[in-house]
Write a structure and sequence with these properties.
Elements: E1 3-6, H1 16-31, E2 35-40, H2 50-63, E3 69-73, H3 78-91, E4 94-97, H4 101-113, E5 142-145, E6 152-157, E7 161-166, E8 174-176, H5 184-194, E9 199-203, H6 210-219, E10 226-230, E11 233-234, H7 250-255, H8 260-268, H9 282-288, E12 299-300, H10 303-316, H11 319-332, H12 343-350, H13 357-368, H14 375-381, H15 386-396, H16 404-418, H17 423-434, H18 442-448, H19 451-461, H20 465-470
Parallel strand pairs: 1-2, 2-3, 9-10, 11-12
Antiparallel strand pairs: 4-5, 5-8, 6-7
Catalytic activity: tRNA(Glu) + L-glutamate + ATP = L-glutamyl-tRNA(Glu) + AMP + diphosphate
Domain Glutamyl/glutaminyl-tRNA synthetase class Ib catalytic: 2-308
Subunit structure: Monomer.
Length: 472
């Protein structure tokens, strides 16, 4: 069975790069009837926080990336790591090193001065016939992995192709600190082995860790998983997307009014393709996704493309679902939603005209607040002759059935009677009712409001100085 994992460090929010890694790992497991494991790598006690853990869980839940096992926390597996270190010490694949930190720093400084690569010199590494120094008093040793001294470590990366590293380039990695706490690269190896991970899909910033991890896995007699290292993501400006440059929390996309299916669809195309398909469901993505069509080159984030996808999904969403998503946004603005007009009806009329949920909330807010049109819009659209036109329309408004067809017929009759074109009446109606120039058809717009609110807003608007001035 294929088993993948997502293993974030809870030192900040779940950003878009981490979300893509999680998505690819999740989809690969789902598409192969495998298991997807969530592991929280929280051994950096100084930087890991419960808030960051919750941000990861919230982000994955919002994206719909459900996991089969976990979350497993590395801080709760310390006894397991120490037990494996004990086994390695007994087997001779690891050893105690008593070199003090300041001694190691001095060694590396000398190596740099000589133009050499700074590295541990193997002073405490046991070798046949080698006499080791006496352990210094009062020094707690670290534990180092006995890395092979010759040969190559190689793997066929499922994204980058064949990668080979000479073992001579790798020094003996510290796998347990002097206080006994295991190090990152060691914990990852034990976890991947214990959890039966078959495919490690992760960012290419981990490529340098891979040869060390492979060697430790082999020393433990474990199966080496297949690795797929994803290329970096560039921002809209072509710079590397990072927490310090442009990367934001996945949940910020929720705050900004994106639908999760739009973000998932967009991330799916960020460095992977299925022919020319641009739009696909979550299920289709799981069926189509493979590791053969991930590009090894950097992917560039395109906000315009994401906005286009979001608008596509908004158009096709059921109005009742969008209503449930817009309602708390309005509540957060202090807007009281009344029985009429129906919020769902407002959304159904406008959902094809907006790019995100916040724009839908902007539109809906107009129907529940007494908004005053700006003087600029009043001056622009309420021209001489507008007042008699509006007065004629308002005079007949109480007598007609309150439905879009009847309102539309009255508008047409009114402009015909006054010998003017449709915008002469439609634009003032839009401005006085919503304070906006762009709306759906004006008859459908008016039908959303209760008749008494329409009459009230038009009556107030017709008292505007610009209209009273235009009547003389």
């Amino acid at each position: 069975m294929i088993r993948t994992r997502f293993a974030p460090s809870p030192t900040g929010f779940l950003h878009i790069g981490g979300a893509r890694t999680a998505l690819f790992s999740w989809a690969y497991a789902r598409g192969h009837a495998g298991s997807f494991v969530l592991r929280i790598e929280d051994t950096d006690l100084a930087r890991s926080t419960p808030e960051a853990v919750q941000a990861i869980l919230d982000g994955m839940a919002w994206l719909g990336l459900d996991y089969d096992e976990g979350p497993f926390y590395q801080t709760r597996r310390m006894d397991r790591y120490r037990a494996v270190i004990g086994e390695m010490l007994a087997a001779g694949t690891a050893y105690h090193c008593y070199m003090a930190p300041e001694e190691l720093d001095r060694l590396r400084g000398e190596q740099r001065q000589q133009g050499l690569k700074p590295r541990y010199n193997g002073l405490w590494r046991p070798e046949p016939g080698k006499d080791l120094p006496l352990p210094p008093a009062g020094v707690q040793p670290v534990v180092r992995f006995r890395n092979p001294s010759d040969g190559m470590v190689a793997w066929d990366d499922l994204v980058k192709g064949r990668i080979e590293i000479a073992n001579g380039e790798l020094d003996d990695l510290v796998i347990a600190r002097a206080d006994g706490t295991p190090t990152y690269n060691f914990c990852v190896v034990v976890d991947d082995r214990d959890m039966g991970i078959t495919h490690v899909i992760r960012g290419d910033d981990h490529v340098n860790n891979t040869p060390r991890q492979i060697n430790i896995l082999r020393a433990l007699g474990a199966e080496v998983p297949l690795y797929a290292h994803l290329s970096m993501i560039l921002g809209d400006d072509g710079q590397k997307l990072s927490k310090r440059h442009g990367a934001v929390s996945v949940m910020q996309y929720d705050d900004e009014g994106y639908l999760p299916e739009a973000v998932v669809n967009y991330l799916g195309r960020l460095g992977w393709s299925h022919g020319d398909e641009e739009i696909f469901s979550r299920q289709q993505f799981c069926e189509w996704f493979d590791l053969d069509h991930i590009t090894p080159s950097a992917a560039q984030f395109n906000t315009e493309k994401l906005n286009w996808l979001n608008a596509h999904y908004l158009k096709r969403a059921h109005p009742s679902r969008l209503t449930a998503l817009v309602r708390p946004r309005l509540a957060g603005r202090g807007v009281t939603i009344t029985a009429a007009p129906s919020l769902e009806a407002i959304i159904a009329l406008h959902q094809e005209r907006v790019a995100n949920l916040n724009e839908l909330a902007d539109v809906a807010e107009v129907f529940y607040r007494d908004l005053q049109p700006t003087a600029e819009l009043l001056t622009k659209h309420l021209t001489p002759g507008t007042l008699p036109l509006l007065q004629s329309f308002v005079a007949d408004l109480p007598a007609i059935p309150w439905e879009a067809a009847a309102i539309g017929a009255l508008i047409k009759a009114c402009v015909a009677r006054h010998g003017v074109k449709m915008p002469k009446l439609a634009m003032p109606l839009r401005i006085l009712l919503t304070g906006q120039e762009q709306t759906p058809s004006v008859d459908a717009l008016l039908a959303l409001f209760p008749r008494e609110i329409v009459l009230k807003r038009l009556a107030v608007g017709m008292q505007a100085d610009v209209l009273r001035g235009s009547a003389h």
